[in-house]
Amino acid sequence: MMPMTTECAPHEQADEATIARVQQSMPDTHTLARMSEIFGALGDPTRLRIALALCRQPLCVHDLSQILGVSESAVSHQLRTLRMLRLVTSRRAGKRVYYSLDDAHVYRLIEEGLKHAQER
Amino acid sequence: MMPMTTECAPHEQADEATIARVQQSMPDTHTLARMSEIFGALGDPTRLRIALALCRQPLCVHDLSQILGVSESAVSHQLRTLRMLRLVTSRRAGKRVYYSLDDAHVYRLIEEGLKHAQER
DNA sequence: TCAATAGTTGAACAACTGTTCCAATGTTCA
DNA sequence: TGAACATTGGAACAGTTGTTCAACTATTGA
User: Fold this and answer.
1) Are B49 and A32 in contact (CB under 8 A)?
2) Which phi and psi angles does A28 have, rounded to 5°?
3) N or C: chain A end with fewer CB closer than 10 Å?
4) pTM of the model
């Protein structure tokens, strides 16, 4: 059985179904935006190093500044980003403000990234 | 026993040890760079969507272009980035070039990111 | 209260990045 | 071979982003 039209489609019929199927399997816009924000946040070397340091223990801005060799202002700016994305939490102790990873999820995400980076 | 100097240190003695300990626990420069490159790659919405689509099945540039609603050139450019970071692999089939996730590590990393993004 | 320490904020600037456009390459089929 | 399709490559442009600098708030202790 031949189709009525003689123009051949630029693509096989199967692709349309494939496209629809894959499209439907994609996360919703909000989740997608949040995912890329999280990955993007850890994509900056300074923020990643902050997160890695906080994997060990809670630290204040001054300590992080010393550990990374970056100005306190720069650290504070990056912590703001991480805080807004709920990757870290803060608590004040006198003059100092101590930051920690928000939850175990962040820890596991970093662990997974580390594993991938170390292979090969 | 009191120290000879009367000037008080701007920080407690403990912090220096803390700084050294955390610094030593940090991954080496190369691993760190690779980690941030990987996270950064998934931090771009287009590249993340490409990776998510490839979580389902291998796809060619044309299909990805349709699925994401982005020009083929843009898709190709982003695939180049993902390929250079070894997050995806390609194989030619006739005119088409099919891309897939490089390995299970990438899949798990995306899974972990998705889980984190969906909570709360 | 004042001085010192700790942290935050906003503006500005340079550096980076993603998309577009167009040309070039590679592949198939007639 | 020539035409059409699929992908890649480079240049250029706009938009984003990370750091710096300086000013500002907050806390402690004298």
Assistant:
1) yes
2) -65, 165
3) N
4) 0.90
